Amino acid sequence: MWQTKKLSYPSLTFLDSVIPDVADYGIGMQNLPTVIKENDSAILVSVSVPGIEKEALDIQYEEGYLTVGIDSVDVDKDSDSVTHLSEFSLGKQKRTYYIPDVNVDSMDASLKNGVLTVTLAKIDSVKPVSISISS
């Protein structure tokens, strides 16, 4: 029979007492790992979604909140084989990010190599402006 080994983490002292051991719940890294970057004109949100087709993705922006949702299915459910171990995240997941002050008419999303990248153009009022000093 297949089993997974419980991961050992170094002691986090105070955090150990307030955060449950996620390895016990089997939810470790299933929270849509994300990188958020910013440049002069846009905010880029990159979300790891390996193996997910674009049809299974739902991206919404409302009142300053960007929500990325996925609905993954069991790719092997019709197989005649018996599954002994499955660490794929199946079902619906979503993650919401607070990203205010973006141009809702200038948003773009792309999916490449298992990474979803959402580009949110900044509105002019939040772009840095250089102020000269008068004499």
Describe the fold and architecture.
The protein is mainly beta and 135 residues long. The protein has a domain at 29-76 and 85-122: Immunoglobulin-like, CATH 2.60.40. It is built from 2 helices and 7 strands; from the N terminus they run ααβββββββ. Strands 1-2-7-6 form a 4-stranded antiparallel sheet, with no helix packed on it. β6 (102-112) and β7 (115-122) form a beta hairpin. The longest helix is centred in the first third of the chain and has 5 residues, at 14-18. The protein is elongated. The model is unreliable at 1-9 and 11-29 (pLDDT under 50).
The tally of beta strands, per DSSP, is 7
* Model regions low in confidence, pLDDT < 50 over at least 5 residues: 1-9, 11-29
Determine and state the CATH class of the domain at 29-76 and 85-122: Mainly Beta
Backbone structural class: mainly beta
Largest sheet: 4 strands, antiparallel
Task: Spell the H/E element sequence.
Answer: HHEEEEEEE
Strand content: 35-45%
Enumerate the strands of the largest sheet in spatial order, edge to edge or round the barrel. Answer: 1-2-7-6
Predict the CATH topology of the domain at 29-76 and 85-122.
Answer: Immunoglobulin-like
Give the name of the CATH architecture of the domain at 29-76 and 85-122.
Sandwich
Secondary-structure topology with pairs:
Blueprint: H1 14-18, H2 22-25, E1 34-38, E2 42-48, E3 57-62, E4 65-72, E5 91-98, E6 102-112, E7 115-122
Antiparallel strand pairs: 1-2, 2-7, 3-4, 4-5, 6-7
